[in-house]
Specification:
about 375 residues; alpha+beta; 5-stranded mixed beta sheet; 8 helices; globular; disordered C terminus; membrane; Aim32/Apd1-like; transmembrane; Altered inheritance of mitochondria protein 32
Length: about 375
């Protein structure tokens, strides 16, 4: 009897599982077409200039993006961000430095706890912001630009590069669909390059411009070593590798996706050669055609390599193929034109010798 039950039930469960997976796949395709990377509004607007000029960005670490209500600043169930918003409105006219304040997720395993305040471009982390000391924090740090007298839990220094992805799905479904996918892709590519200790990826709340989802902010050193905050829109998983290899590793802006930057609007930026095709795939051949001095990609201006290791082995190449990356060629040496011609001449000479030897043997 148990055998008969197993024989009958297993196909039923299998059919139900297949039906469930089919429904999930159909739902995912529908979400992508309506709210995700395939939605009709993608690439409809020129993104440059869609960011207002500002000089400082403060992120308050708080809970998880899945727990955020649509309006964090007005939620009675979330007293800390609500108090921050209240004090911000009261002191806004006292703040001399143009400042943005955004909530980001708290991730203990990454070193970010509830109540941590991350400040860019200062690269400072204050711990222990609570509802009871928000006023003092604002007065000391945000308004006066001094050390926080109430920071009993300490002050730390932020290192490396920091990526914030809007994943505030309760506020707008487009960021709820695109954000988590981009975060997973960033983490995958970072893991491939062995940069987990140098680049952090955190979800953040509403930053404006949900219609530009996926929305990404990248804080990393520019070519002069100064921390820059670059905003990107219409970012898809196909763009992630280029943002790591160009924006973070080389300090080059991806022009088509660039919304603007933290700092003076007239600040000089280094723009990457933009060979992005309509479907989001990058044509790397164009990047290599006119450069005879490139010896490999492992020379990022920020000490960040766009390779996983200096030795690009077969396993890494295979992993890149599985990830759909088109950047493998960046980690291979580029031969100079004269080297190629020399090699061709040598091969031609060897071929001629081989033919002559063959005729000689026949004549013998």
């Amino acid at each position: 009897m148990p055998l008969l039950s197993h024989t009958i039930i297993t196909p039923i469960l299998s059919r139900n599982n297949r039906r469930c997976f089919s429904l999930m796949a159909a739902s995912a395709a529908f979400d992508d077409a309506k709210h995700g990377f395939s939605r009709p509004e993608m690439y409809k607007e020129n993104l440059a200039g869609t960011l207002d000029a500002y000089d400082r960005h403060v992120f308050l670490c708080y809970k998880n993006h899945l727990a955020w209500p649509p309006r964090l600043e007005a939620s009675d169930a979330d007293p800390l961000p609500k108090r921050v918003a209240t004090v911000w409105r009261a002191r806004k006219n006292d703040i001399a430095v143009k400042t943005k304040i955004t909530v980001c997720e708290a991730r203990e395993e990454a070193g970010f706890s509830d109540g941590d305040a991350l400040i860019f471009p200062d690269m400072i982390k204050y711990r222990g912001v609570e509802e009871s000391n928000v006023d003092v924090f604002f007065n000391d740090v945000i308004v006066s630009g001094k050390e926080w007298s109430g920071g009993k839990q300490g002050k730390g220094v932020l290192k490396g590069s920091h990526i914030f992805v809007c994943a505030h799905g309760s506020r707008d479904v487009r960021c709820g669909v695109c954000g988590p996918v981009l975060m997973d892709k960033f983490n995958e590519e970072i893991q491939l390059r062995g940069l987990k200790d140098q680049i952090s990826v955190l979800a953040c709340s509403h930053i404006g411009g949900h219609k530009y989802a996926g929305n990404v902010i990248i804080f990393s050193p520019g070519s002069d070593g100064k921390i820059m905050g670059h905003w990107y829109g219409y970012v898809t998983p196909d763009d992630v590798a280029a943002l790591l290899d160009r924006q973070i590793a080389k300090g080059e802006v991806i022009k088509k996706l660039w919304r603007g930057q933290m700092g003076p609007p007239g600040a000089e930026i280094k723009v990457a050669d933009d060979h992005k095709l309509a479907n989001g795939v990058y044509n790397n051949k164009a990047n290599l055609s006119n450069n005879e001095n490139v010896t490999g990609c492992c020379q990022g201006v920020n000490g960040v390599s766009c390779c996983r290791t200096a030795s690009f082995d077969d396993k890494t190449a295979e992993a890149y193929k599985k990830q759909g990356s088109n950047n493998i060629s960046w980690c291979l040496p580029v031969l100079k034109k004269r080297d190629i011609l020399t090699a061709g001449g040598i091969l031609g000479a060897l071929a001629a010798v081989a033919v002559a030897f063959r005729f000689y043997r026949r004549a013998s």
